[in-house]
User: Fold this.
Amino acid sequence: MKIKFLIIFALSCILIKSVVADEGNNDISVYTGTFDLIDKEGDDKTTLFGIEHKNPNLFRDTLLGNFSPISGGFVTGSRSVYLYTGVEGQYGIGPIKILPSFSPGYYDKGNGKDLGSVLEFKSEIKIGFDLLNNTKIGYSYSHISNNDWGERNPGTDNQQITFSKNF
Assistant:
């Protein structure tokens, strides 16, 4: 439990330091939703709450579109923790943004679902809508699994509502 707290504390310090260092160039998202939405076993469905950071200055145009690094984490109602860093694409259709991402990360099951490994991979698709200047709201659907690299690989599907602010 102490190690999990230290990892969360370290990630929070890094996030805060980057926000202070790049004042005015940060996109912070908070999100909440359902962990293990499908829950075939009937015992692991719970809530989740998370935070995610990206720096708009790090967006890069490539042949496949506009990409940026992301970092974040969430905790579930069963005290499971997932800390991740990865890459997110951004495609726009007017005020609508489509944001696919891929993020490897560290997973601690806490009192929740055993995903079979501490190394898990999150694939996600978000749909965001520009509300006001530098403010978005969105919906995302993600799948987390270990690609059969763990003892077992039940995976989990999640859905979230996201509020993002660039400041």
Q: What stands out?
A: Residues 70 and 89 are 10 Å apart (CA to CA). The radius of gyration is 16 Å. The chain has a mean pLDDT of 85.
